[in-house]
Amino acid sequence: MVAVYSIALLGGLLALITTVLGAALAESLDKPAIDVVGKLGSRGKTLIGAVAGFGMGGMAAEFSPLDLGWQVVLSIAVAAAGVGALWARFSTTRKHLL
Asked: Of 70, 80, 20, which Cα lies nearest the Cα of 50?
């Protein structure tokens, strides 16, 4: 399962970096047509957060010094995916105070 967690982590982090750099490029060039974040929408950003969270949680639990079974590791990875999805949803939809 380490391969699954590492692929999810790599894919999630690459998608995260791509969206951040794409949004920064579109903003600096003032071209909303190339804005990746606008095209993804709320569900796409939530999915990226969930995949990155799944990979991080799975890798962290897999290489924990505790002797955890694969069921516990998978449960931790799924819980981390939920937290990652919630955080992505919260951080992209909240209203700015300034």
From this structure: 80
